[in-house]
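re the bet — no i am not wrong, look at it urself. input seq straight from the record:
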Amino acid sequence: MMPFKRILLKLSGETLAGGKSFGLDMPTVVNICEDIADLWRNGAEVAMVVGGGNIFRGVNADAVNLDRAQGDYMGMLATVINSLALQNALEKMGVPTRVQTAIEMREIAEPFIRRKALSHLEKGRIVIFAAGTGSPYFSTDTAAALRAAEIGADCLLKATKVDGIYDSDPAENSDAQLLRNVSYMEALTRQLKIMDAAAFSLCMENKIPIIVANVLKKGTLQKIILDGEHIGTLVHHEKE
């Protein structure tokens, strides 16, 4: 039996860049979408939130002399570009996909309407939520936690370029240890940086387990969602 029927997949923009420092790497996008399509073909209900860091990150607004709110809106538009790329790749694989945006742009996507999103999922369509929450000062991680709660997701799977949550930055500390199980409170008190505090708090309040894993390793999504393997880091109420 599939351990998770309805999932909210959070993809970072950096993941879609592949090995590039900027923009979209379409072979990487296609590889990720092949795994997502396989979940769909096996009966999983998949919703997605994608970041925009491969194009623009609102938190970097100060560095380029932009107002933070303005920078966040620019970042939201970057997530729409990524969402349309994912939709294009999935539909070329025969997977029906809808993009819903938190900022209305009706010519290219539907506005976010919760009941319509639920209807799409029930009809076997993948739904991609773009433009974050539609408000500045909220990350796409928080948007993912919010949308996961709104659609009643069984889990929030944060797909990254790292193998999970570490006790320190593995890029700076070669002795960093991968944490396999972490409680919500531990993630908050230790200020583990894989997601922000607002996202952890939303998931904790709504009892949505978080799985953090490396999506660039082929087959990771299938092993977690279809087979129930413990890959990466599980964040839940009890550390055990």
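see?? DSSP finds eight helices and eleven strands in the chain. told u. also The first strand starts at residue 6 and ends at 11. so pay up
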